[in-house]
Amino acid sequence: MMSLCHNIINISCVKSSWSNDVRASLYSLMVLIILTTVVGNLIVIISISHFKQLHTPTNWLIHSMATVDFLLGCLVMPYSMVRSVEHCWYFGDVFCKIHTSTDIMLSSASIFHLSFISIDRYYAVCDPLRYKTKINILVIFVMIFISWSIPALFAFGMIFLELNFKGAEEMYYKHIHCIGSCSVFFSKTSGVLAFMTSFYIPGSIMICIYYRIYFIAKGQARSINDASQKFRIGLEEKNGISRSKERKATKTLGIVMGVFLTCWCPFFVCTVMDPFLDYTIPPILNDALIWFGYLNSTLNPMVYAFFYPWFRRALKMILFGKIFQKDSSRCKLFLELNP
């Protein structure tokens, strides 16, 4: 006999029919993802906040992104976990709207931050002499403001004004809506708009900038190689350093792009295609793809912070409680600041 989320038989959502073992496994996996997301991003936040040497414009952008991902792990993922495992929403209609809006806002804000970080890295690698004049604290503040405000206005405006239903109200209320559900529904127009705003535009910026950096780095390496044939002794050391920095920046951005596209592309492709396929994509697949997207926030601190030596040293100091020692904030985590 099937279980219902509520006692209203005709319009209640159907509860998941998974066994207790399957539920326990799913809860364990999701709790692990949530804890990794919260702890990883919290360490990034503490590191950049505490150590004065890390108070650079670029790091404040990473700090802001870590805050977004931390809040996603704290405020959104736990409720999504219950919804995904039980197939029921027990927290009321108003909180459903708040949760959905916050989910869309924070997920989009995380992607916006990734896009702006790629712009920052472009100037750092491709125009290092003018980097500090172009990317100052005011520019970073504007980037952070845009990364939070546009996703917030878009998400809360769309959900609370019910613009996501526009053009598909009859389909939703007749064939999809049930009591005890809190799924994200998009019409054809709102689905395309969400796809463009939250994924396609920031994602395209990241891809274009990555390829621009890649080809400029290759050109710089070729120029240095040509010059070093004529001035081998004087430029040998500089050549090695430059190529090493270019390779590191290109490799890091390559990993960023790979993680970003792997995590979010399936969800957004399904989101934009579902209305055009008459909503035939199974809800369980959509749920799984949402969690795949959440993994981007789990992996962000590993990609952006764990790859840097300063982070490993900061992590060690945090774990051993050395940050509570006097003047620990002035500790030198590296010899010199590189963009």
From TrEMBL:
It comes from Physeter macrocephalus. One of its GO terms (cellular component) is endoplasmic reticulum membrane. Its main location: membrane. GO terms for biological process: adenylate cyclase-activating G protein-coupled receptor signaling pathway; adenylate cyclase-inhibiting G protein-coupled receptor signaling pathway; phospholipase C-activating G protein-coupled receptor signaling pathway. CDD domains: 7tmA_TAAR1. This is Trace amine-associated receptor 1. Residues 40-304 form the G-protein coupled receptors family 1 profile domain. It is a multi-pass membrane protein. Belongs to the G-protein coupled receptor 1 family. InterPro entries: GPCR_Rhodpsn, GPCR_Rhodpsn_7TM, TAAR, TAAR1, TAAR_fam. One of its GO terms (molecular function) is trace-amine receptor activity. SUPFAM superfamilies: Family A G protein-coupled receptor-like. It is found in: Cell membrane; Endoplasmic reticulum membrane. The gene is LOC102990859. Keywords: Cell membrane, Disulfide bond, Endoplasmic reticulum, G-protein coupled receptor, Glycoprotein, Membrane, Receptor, Transducer, Transmembrane, Transmembrane helix. The chain crosses the membrane at residues 26-48, 60-81, 104-123, 135-161, 193-213, 253-277, 289-311.
